[in-house]
Amino acid sequence: MMVLLLKSRPSKILEETVAEVKNNLKDKIHNIKVERAVIGIFFTGVCLDTGHAGICATPIKEIPEAVCCPSSARAMPNAGYLTERPVVKYLDDALSNIPMKKALGIAVLSALSSYCRDKGLVNGYKMRVGVDAIECLDLKDDTYPVLIGAIAPCLRILKGRKKPFTIIELDPRTLKSDEIRFYAPPGKTPEIVPKADVLVITGTTLINGTLEGILKLARPDAQVVVLGPTASILPHAFFRRGVNILGGDIITNPEKMLDTLTEGGSGYHLYGKSVERVVTTVKYRKSVKN
Question: What is the pTM for the complete model shown?
Fold first, then answer.
């Protein structure tokens, strides 16, 4: 589901969310450590010594160096020492340009976001646990949906409507034969996204730095949904940029989740067992231009 649609840029969403977590936790953040970290085939997960866990998509396709040991070492330079690093170092990694370090940083940011919620340090949004964000899509008969990334559950629903839609995906090989006719190349993004009544975006765009460019193209009246484990961090910076719904995850059994990732587990092996879907929506909206 990795997509590269626009020029990759530093993420203001991540910058603002990192700053929010640091401000919420203040000096306490310096006492929190990563107890366990796992880089799986599909997802990367961490558990903090507070008991809180976070997850992020593993950006395998974003790592061209992952072809031999010496070059792969550059892609993940801290292997073997992940449980010895302070969480503030991981938050720095969330803002880096190295995809695997960034993914681990986002997973830690997600775990710290969960910690902030449990401590009552954040507000301004509503969460519904056990709800799939796909169920919240406003798909009327005349709705034109645009899907950014090959999100299989969304594709099944959109194909079942038997009405026009568009999917923008970097790698068309991920699409089935009956999906190719809905495909548009990434270069069409500036033309297609402003036409969307419903815009569904994979959270992996947060890793490759294209999410905010896509959000700027969306119409103000469009329903904008960001989906996936990568979208499980605090939501305020998303909402300020026009996102209506975040479809992320909450980790209910951190150790089982990490054990599953070590065995190559995917979402099918996680949901309902160690992870629950969660829908986050805004209570009030304050937009920003940048």
Answer: 0.90
